[in-house]
Amino acid sequence: MEGIADIRDRMASARRSFEEVRTEMGRVVVGHEGLIEQVFVALVCGGHCLLEGVPGLGKTLMVRSLAAVVNLSFSRIQFTPDLMPADITGTQMLTEDPSGRKLFDFQRGPIFAHVVLADEINRATPKTQSALLEAMQEQNVTVAGKAHRLESPFMVMATQNPIEMEGTYPLPEAQIDRFFFKLLLEYPSREELGRIADLTTSPPPLALNRVLDAEMILKIRAWVREVPIAEAVKDYTARLILATHPQRNGRVPIAEKYVLYGASPRGLQSLILAAKARALLAQRPNVSFEDIRAVAPQSLRHRIILNLEGEAEGVTAERVVAEVVERVTEIAE
Amino acid sequence: MSDDALLLQGKFSELIRWERTKRRETVLLAAFCYAFLVSLLLLPARGLLPAWFSPFYFPLVSFLLLAPACFWLRPWGEKDSLRALFVLDRALRLHERAITAAEILQRYDPSAVEQCVLSEAGEKLRSVDVKALFKRRRSWHALLAPPLLLVWLGLVWLDFRMDFGAPAPRPASLAQKLKEFSQELRQKAEAQDLAETLNVARALQELAEERLRGQGNDEKLGENLAALEKRLEERAPGGESDSALGAYGREALSSLKAELEAMKGQLRPGSTMKEKELLDRLSSLPLLSQALEQGRSPMGGLGGQELQSFLDKLDRSVAAELDRRSLAEVEDFLSMLLRGRETGDARSEATMDSGRAGEKRSAEKAGGKGDLAGDQPGTRTRLAQSPPGGASAATELQGILGEGKSSGLTWRAETKPGESKIPEQEVAASYRRQLEEDLASEKIPHGVKETVKKYFLSLGMGEEKK
How near does any CA of chain B get to the CA of A331, in Å? Predict the structure, then answer.
C-alpha cells in the first residue's frame, strides 16, 4: 500500500524525468520549450501529436530527438501521394520456409515502432492516411484479417505544412480528432536563430543520451490517470467543450457565429488527461482550473471546425478557444 | 479519519458558516435598503393610507415583507458552498486543493493520491483564520443604507413639521382669559353701577394680573378661582330673584335701569316739571310704565314723594337683579373656566358646555335629547360638539375677511308660533351669554368678533321693542 510519501516520490520522479528529457532535447532543439513539454505530456498521456509549421522549423528534428532521448524504437514515414496503406502497416509476403513450402508471411510496416514520424501526412491520399486510424485509436493493425498489436508506448507524430496546399489531401475530421494535441511551431526569434546557426554550422554535438525508457513512460502514464480531479473542475471542462458548440446551451457568441462543429468528446478526454499530466509534472496531486486552461488551445484547436463565415473573416480556431476560455466561469452560475 | 481530514472538515465547516453569516447580513442589509427606498416612494402616498398608519411604520412593514423575499431569491445552496471553497483556493493559491479535498472528504476510503491531496490542503489551511482572511466587505447596500436612512428621516421630519409644526393658534392662557373677562365685567359693572359685580370683577382682575406678572402658578390661580366660585355659589341662595323682574331679559332690565335713571333726574328736588309733564314723560318710558302697572301703582294716584320712593325701590331691585345675574354669569364663567382647565385647553374648547344653564340644568332638562321643544334654554352637548367622522387631528380653517362672491337661496314661509315653553327673551339672553363665553375663549376669530357680537345682541331686540 502506497503512502503519501510514495505519492510525493512518484510526482518528483515524473518531474525529474521530464526535466531530463527537456534538458537533453534542448541540446539540439532550439527554443520550443513549451512544445517540448506538450510533446512530453502527449507521450505520457498515450496521445498522438500533429505538428504544424512551415518547413525548416525543426518539426522532424523534434520528433527524432524525442525518440532518441526516450530509448524507444523510432520509424519515419515520408508521406507522398503514391504511398500505399500497406507501405505503412506492412503486408503479406510470399516466402519459402526451409522445407521449400511457400507461405504468406506478414512483413511489419514502419508503423510497428514506439514513435512513428508521419512526415508531411497531408501529402498522402486519404486512403493511406486512414491506414493510421486503427493504429492511432486502438493500437492495432489488421492485415489480411489478422490483428497485430502495436507495442506500448505507441505514439504517432505527424507533421504538416500549412502553406503548401497544392497536391495535398487535408486530413479528414475523423483523422484529425484522433490526434491528442495539435502543436504549432512558431518561427524562431533572433536569439534562437543565432543559436540554430551555431548548432548547425559547427561540429555536430555529441549524441543524445537516453534518459527515459518505455517502462518509466508506462509508469508515468498510470500515475497520470490516478491524479484526482474535482467535480467542479470536470464540470468546468465539460462547459468549455459545450461552449464551442454553436447550438448548445452555454455557447459563447463567437462559437455561435463562426463555428460549424464544436469540439468532440475526445476533446474533453484530451483536456482532462493533459491537465492531469500537467498537474503531475508540476508535482501537484490534483488538477486545477489553470491546468485545464493551459492545455485548452493544443487540445481543442484542431477539433473546432469553422463555418464559411468564420473562414471568410479569417477567424481562427485559436481565437475561438481563447474566447471560450475567457468567457466560461469556473463555477457555474 | 486522518488528522488532516478532521482539520479540513472543521475548516470547511467554519468557512461555509462564516460565508453564510455574511450572506445573511448582506441580504438583510439589502432588504433594509430596499425597505427605505420603498418607504421613500410611499411617503408621498401616505394620504391614501389610513391615518393610524404612521410613516414610521413604512420601513418596518416594508422590511418585514422584503426580507423573506430577498432570502427566497438568494437562498444558500451547494453552489454557494462550492464558490466559497473556490474563493478560498484563489485566495491561498491552493490550485483547487480545497475543492478537491472537500470532495474527497465525502468518500469513504480515499486512495493514496487523494490522501496526499488532503495532506497538502491540510498543511496549507492549518494556520488559516477564515474570518480574518475573508473579512466583511462593504457592499453598495452598506454604503447606501445610512444616506437612505437620513433622507427618509429628514423627509418624515419635514412632513411632520408641515403637518404639526405649523404655528397653531395657541389657546389663551387661564389668566389671560380671566383678565379679559374681568375687564369686560368691570366695565359693565361700572356702567350699570353693579356694586357686587364690580367687587368680583376687581377681585378677578387682581388674580389675573398677579398670575400674568408671574406670581404663583395656574394651579394656585385655579384654587383661588374655585374658592371664589364657591363663595358665589354659597351667596346665590340668599340673592333670590325678584319675581316681578325675573321675566325681564338682561337687555330689558338694562333699558329699565336707563329709564329709571332718566325719570329720577326729572324728579330731583330742584326740578320744576309739572305733574302733567311728568306723566307725559313717564308714558314715553314703556318699560317703566309697565313696571309701575305691575307694581299696582297707577301713575295718576301717586304723588311726587311716593313716585320718588317707588322709583328708588325699583331702581334698587333692578340693580340687585342685574347684579345677581352678572354674578350668576361670573359663576358660570368660572365653572366653565375651571372645568376647561381640568380637561385640557384643546379639548375644553371643543367640548365646552357653554350656556348659563350648565350641566346641572342640562340634566334637569326634560327630553333634551329629542326633537321636541323643552322647557329650558338649549345647550350644546358633547355629542353635538364632536366633529363628524370622529377626526382627532386638529383642524385649522383659514378664511379671508372681506367681501367675496356668495350665492344662496332664500326661502320665505309663514311663521307659526312654536310650542316652546321658554320665553323668547330668555333664549336670546342665553345665546348672548354663550356668545360672551365664546368671545372670551377666543373661539371666534378676532376680526369677526365685533360682527358676531352685534348679531347676537340684535337677537330679540325686535321682540323687546314690541
Answer: 7
